[in-house]
Amino acid sequence: MTRRKFIAGNWKMNLNRQQARELAASVAEYAPGEVDIAVFPPTIWLAHIAGELEGSGVRPGAQNCWRAQKGAFTGEISPAMIAEIAPLVIIGHSERRQLLHEVDALIRDKIDAALEAGLEVILCVGETLETRNEGNAVAHVSAQLESALAGRAPGDLESITIAYEPIWAIGTGEAATPADAQEMSAAIRALMRTLNEGYAERGRILYGGSVTPGNAVELLGQPDVDGALVGGASLKADDFKAIVTAAI
Ligand code: PGA
Q1: In ligand 1, which atom is closest to the CA atom of 95?
Q2: Interval 55-83: pLDDT, tens
Q3: Which residue has the least CA distance to atom 1 on ligand 1?
Q4: Ligand 1 centroid vs 71 CA: distance in angstroms?
Q5: pTM of this prediction?
Q6: Long-range contact list for 185-191, CB < 8 A, 24+ apart?
Q7: b/e per residue 26-49 (b: at least 16 CB within 10 A)
Q8: What is the pLDDT of residues 42-53, one digit of tens each?
Q9: Which position among 52, 84, 93, 116 bears the catalytic label?
Q10: Which of the residues 52, 102, 127, 165 is marked catalytic?
């Protein structure tokens, strides 16, 4: 089956309010109907960006959430709060796993809370260079996925898009080769099949890590790569639009 391609821009902790608005407006103006597009601004700009995107088909999302809907969690933002503004959330990005020591159990709880609030999730998984060189990349990613996904109802699974982001490729300018991206995506799809057949058919797997207009066509041409999670290149309107175009 052909899955609709999905291009997501992760702006991370970049752009002031005006820059964020301008970038959102530019993406909204372009948005071709053939591709699903989402942008993930810094959460403090999320409401502004949602306004810019209204009616364009480009969906806004948050880069993170907490594992409860409310309470004494200073500095955190709940899935229910996000859901008032945006339909999507990224969970388990490697920067949060590494810099903020987020572990698999916390990530599972966050997914529970996000689904409870009605959000769609982009779940990030990926291995370090050391793990890859040891030959353990697939085992590592599979363990991350098992922890996050095992035992979930089929309807919940279908609200979870997987983003395979090898840590050594993020922000380094050194993307995975299309063959490596495909090999891991096929392994991920096989694991999805063990959870639910429909999920394996319809669930999308994004590749992330130094995606550019130059490598997007080949990466997105792989049979099990259904889109891209784009960091650096999503901050430049022309580059992001070119990556969207590569998905058509
Ligand atoms: P990058 O980031 O495109 O800048 O490598 C990707 C990501 O972290 O989602």
Answers
A1: 8
A2: 999 999 999 999 999 999 999 999 999 99
A3: 231
A4: 32
A5: 0.98
A6: 185/222, 185/224, 185/225, 186/223, 186/224, 187/138, 187/141, 187/142, 188/125, 188/141, 188/145, 188/162, 188/164, 188/224, 189/224, 191/142, 191/145, 191/146
A7: bbbebbeeebbbbbbbbbebbebb
A8: 999 999 999 999
A9: 93
A10: 165
